[in-house]
Amino acid sequence: MSFNSDASSPSTSASAADATTRDWIFPSYSFVHSPHNIHRTPRRRRFSSYQPPPQQFNPTASFHPRSAGNDSNTVSSSVSRSTPGRFEFGNHDKSTTLLDDGIDGGGSPGVNSKSNEAVTSEKRGIKERKTTSSEETFLGVLRSWLRIRWHLTFTVAILITVLSSLVHKNFSLHNEVTELQDQISKLNVKLKLCNLSDSIDMGDLSPQDVSVDNFSTKSLKIAALAFSITFLFLPFFVVKYVNYVSKSRRLFDNTTEEISLNKQLAYRVDVFLSVTPYAKPVALLVATLLLICVGGLSLYGVTDGSLADSLWLSWTYVADSGNHANSEGLGPRLVSVSISFGGMLIFAMMLGLVSDAISEKFDSLRKGRSEVVEKNHTLILGWSNKLGSLLNQLAIANESMGGGIVVVMAERDKEDMELDIGKMEFDFRGTSVICRSGSPLILADLKKVSVSKARAIIVLADDGNADQSDARALRTVLSLTGVKEGLNGHIVVELSDLDNEVLVKLVGGDLVETVVAHDVIGRLMIQCARQPGLAQIWEDILGFENCEFYFKRWPKLDGMQFEDVLISFPEAIPCGVKVASHSGKIILNPEDSYVLQEGDEVLVIAEDDDSYAPSDLPMVWRGSLPKDELVHKSFEKILLCGWRRDMEDIITVLDAFLAEGSELWMFNEVAENERERKLEDGGLDIDRLVNIKLINREGNAVIRRHLESLPLESFDSILILADESVEDSAIQADSRSLATLLLIRDIQAKRLPYREALVSQGSWMGEMQQASDKSVIISEILDPRTKNLLSMSKISDYVLSNELVSMALAMVAEDRQINDVLEELFAEEGNELHIRGADLYLREGEELSFYEILLRARQRREIVIGYRPADTGKAVINPSSKNERRKWSLKDVFVVIADKE
Questions:
Q1: Are 841 and 856 in contact (CB under 8 A)?
Q2: Which residues contact 481 (CB under 8 A, 6 or more apart)?
Q3: 8 A C-beta contact, residue 65 and residue 26
Q4: Which one of 57, 91, 649, 784 has the minimum C-beta count within 10 Å?
């Protein structure tokens, strides 16, 4: 299709005229293919996500020059809405498409040139409008910033004016207050002058006099203030001076090593605070007084009050820091704040001192450092495995008095002692146990437990080495004898070695009673080995749980023969007399013809010290003894398993007790040559032994093949000792003794001729119990818990332990005279406990009362204190209903006190 250029290309004027009537025009070819537009269009599409809304292209509105107001506003609005620095045409894509269509359809060159001019003019107008818009924006921002600065300046000016007026008003008021204070001071001066002399007329006072008084008062205040400031800075100058002097001495004298002055002062202060008991409270008091005085002088210098009022006001600031809030004026406020701050420091130090004092007091109570304020109490010094049994016996002894006080002092922590005592499984029966931590070698610790007021002091031996334990006991006795106040009670000392007894008694004198633990156990083991069943009798007599020994004087018995005294107590059995005419000598088992004299005391076996009293003499038939003679003792064969440090004492006692021709076998791990040397060092001469023959065997008692080399079935008695090598540990010693006991019983059971009958029963315990019928085994047991275990198994007939020693200590602590009785009963000579058969006192089927048997035994110079029925294994000491007849059996046995055979 072709177009006519004249017809199809309008003229320029026509185009201008038609521009107002047409809705759109074709953009020129040069405008469309302009390099500027070609590069701008892709850039906009690539980086701008803005998509203009679809609208009809309006060339007139988009490209017409700014001739009309409407067009100008439209372009301005379009520019203002676009992104700064970039101008976008409305619906540019669509106009470009129309332009291409027009070009394809054909167009005239004139139209294209005119269009280029229009575009150029339009671009020039756009640039001008952009410049104008930027200027307007800058002017608007500047205008807004100037407006904000003006408001800020105005506000600051108002604030400065207000503050200036307030400051001026404050100074004005301050001046007025100062003038009023001056007037008040003048009036105070006048008032004082009036009080001093009524004759002086107030009108005669001149202003010069008032000014002189004011000047003197101000001078005093200034001097007080200057003194306060000088006093505050004085410590600083003193410290500097001391440092200067110390440095000067070191510079001038480098040859001698001299301690600096500041170190000397620091040392003196340290010594004062350490040595002086109340150094800290005194220092706090001095600091408080200085603060009050210096603060009062400072207040006197800055206020118009008197010195007394200033001192009182200073005290109020120190006592209550909140009182300074009422101060007025710069000077009074500074001084009051300073005084209040010092008061807070002093109050903090006072709280620290009080807190430390309370903590130390509670710590002292917790650790057992406080003093025991008691009297007539029992004091125990030391700690050992016998303490539990000892406390139990003392609690039983004090039950009749409603309980007592027992104080325990040892070098252990108080809490640990109380915890261990709390674990003891027995009833204290109203007795209170007080624990204190301390050393019995220190007099101050002894005074802490009121040692001078105790009625009895028990010194326990330490668990461990015997020599060290006895040495410590000796030092303890020396400390006790050095108490200035003296001792009201006696001292009971437990020793481990008999050789140290003489030395302890030499140091302690008449105050000391000794109980040698090893000696007591050794002698008891020998007696019980020779007389089966005696161990249980000793437990009943020594302990406070059943019957025990008591001394008491009965004036109504004076002039009565001892034979009649025997049947005068329905609830007790007399055993001896304490003779007053022989300095209190104790006679056990006296003759029937002995007559009680004035002052004599009767020794009885009773349940308690207040449970017996003499009564009228009953009618008792004496009768006659069925047999007059005892069976003489024959030789015995005894085995000692283990080695003890007092072995020579045991051998000596056995030589005194046994019949001639007896054999003593010693089986232990000590070499034979070493045994002889130890026995000789202990003072034993083997060649002087009369009744026994020593046979040595070397071996270990817990090894079966070593024990099988011995003729165990042929021994009458076997004594298992706690070996010296393990005596430091009670558990280890008991374990060794228990193992030896079981091995011996098993070997004996297998060697018995009637073993086959026992095997059919299938009971190894039965075998061992049958073996115990042929020989007696006495085991030395240190721990009571092991003793209870063996007693239940019944594989060892009698068991002795440290519990008997504890019972003996408790009895001697309650009455020191009992120690003489025990010493005679344990000694090689004199009286001792015996177990006699019933056939010595009665006939089969005979009915007799206990009084009648008691009088029959007197024909043999014996005192019957109890019996053991054949059908029970429990002995009855001090039976009740002594005048009541009963039928006896020849298998019954009686417990008597008689001379040693």
A1: yes
A2: 507, 508, 509, 511
A3: no
A4: 91
Radius of gyration of the chain (CA): 60
Q: CA-CA distance, 473 to 461, in Å (whole number)?
A: 7
Q: What is the pLDDT of residue 435?
A: 92
Beta bridge pairs of residue 381: 409, 459
Torsion of the alpha carbons at 56, 57, 62 and 67, rounded to the nearest 10: -80
Quick: pLDDT tens for 679-714: 888 888 888 899 999 999 999 999 999 999 999 988
pTM of the model: 0.65
Nearest to residue 235, comparing CAs of 162, 287, 180, 305? Answer: 287
Q: How far apart are CA 745 and CA 738, in angstroms?
A: 11
What pLDDT shows up at residue 380? 96
How far apart are the C-alpha atoms of 667 and 655, rounded to whole Å?
18
Distance, in Å, from the CA atom of 157 to the CA atom of 169, rounded to the nearest integer, reads 18
Question: What does the block give as tokens for 353?
Answer: 């001192």
530 membership: H or E segment, kind and range: helix 517-530
Whole-number Å distance between alpha carbons of 502 and 482? 19
What SS3 state is found at 415? helix
Give the closest residue to 419 by CA, choosing from 439, 406, 433, 398. 433
Q: Which residues, given as ranges, of the chain have pLDDT below 70?
A: 1-123, 127-131, 134-135, 195-215, 249-262, 627-633, 753-774, 788, 791-799, 901
491 and 515 Cβ atoms separated by less than 8 Å:
no
* Positive or negative torsion for Cα 47, 52, 54, 55: negative
First-to-final CA distance of the chain: 171
